[in-house]
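Many introductory courses stop at the sequence. We go one step further.
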Amino acid sequence: FFAEQRCLKVAAPMVRFSKLPFRHVVRSWGTDVVYTPMIMAESFVASQKARDVELTTNSQDNPVVVQFAAHSAKEFADAAELVAGKVSAVD
């Protein structure tokens, strides 16, 4: 993007709305980077079910940034480790 000197279009996260279907729609309108909805790190770390429900993605969902809400740096880091290699970035 920077080498091409063009504007980067980013879809900001929307609580409970930035799920995979929405991200696909905004990508179809030319968005370059998308965010997931805010995910509670504590439940994401504690529960496989929470991970399966809260974070859905596929090969077309790239680049994607996962947004976590955490009470501590450790909680944030634990959640980030679980998505390492599956997403483009963590916020």
